[in-house]
Write a structure and sequence with these properties.
The chain is of the alpha+beta class and about 150 residues long. It is about 50% helix and about 15% strand. Helix 1 packs across helix 2.
Length: about 150
């Protein structure tokens, strides 16, 4: 019986699995579509959708004037992303340096994506099955946002 078995382990420890999902979430938000294995895509979907919902709610609260609650929701959404792969002191020495991936993802999720999905009550992503991978036969999938992106390249 599968009582209280909530998620796939994906062959990883819990910390490695969390890191994997945060990396996939960051990549999906920044690129708006990624190709990965089907189990990873199925596990990523609720992870990303919760982050987008938090970003939407933060945007609504910020517009209504409740900045403290909006900040709280933004920080909760930021927990779904990694800070990025920049060096530990890169912004100290170069204040004009490009933002890290996590900061850019949080800005996109509370800005562009929150605006795009403002009227949608959920179901922000879709998964397309792509068939088996040539090397090991793993089932591959494309996960992307439902509504058209600003760059409609296929």
């Amino acid at each position: 019986m599968r009582h209280l078995v909530a998620h796939r382990k994906l062959g990883r420890t819990s910390s490695h699995r969390k890191a994997l999902l945060r990396n996939l979430c960051t990549s999906l938000v920044l690129n708006e579509k990624i190709v990965t294995t089907l189990p990873k895509a199925k596990e990523l979907r609720p992870f990303v959708e919760k982050a987008i919902t938090l970003g939407r709610r933060a945007r609504v609260l910020r517009e209504s004037g409740s900045t403290e609650a909006a900040l709280h929701l933004t920080r909760q959404a930021a927990a779904s992303f990694f800070a990025g792969n920049a060096g530990y002191d890169s912004r100290q020495h170069d204040p004009g340096a490009e933002r890290t991936a996590g900061v850019a993802a949080v800005r996109k999720i509370t800005g562009e994506l929150a605006e795009r999905f403002a009227d949608r009550p959920g179901g922000y992503t879709r998964i397309y099955k792509l068939g088996p991978r040539k090397g090991d036969g793993a089932e591959m999938a494309l996960i992307e946002f439902v509504e058209g992106s600003s760059s409609t390249a296929s």
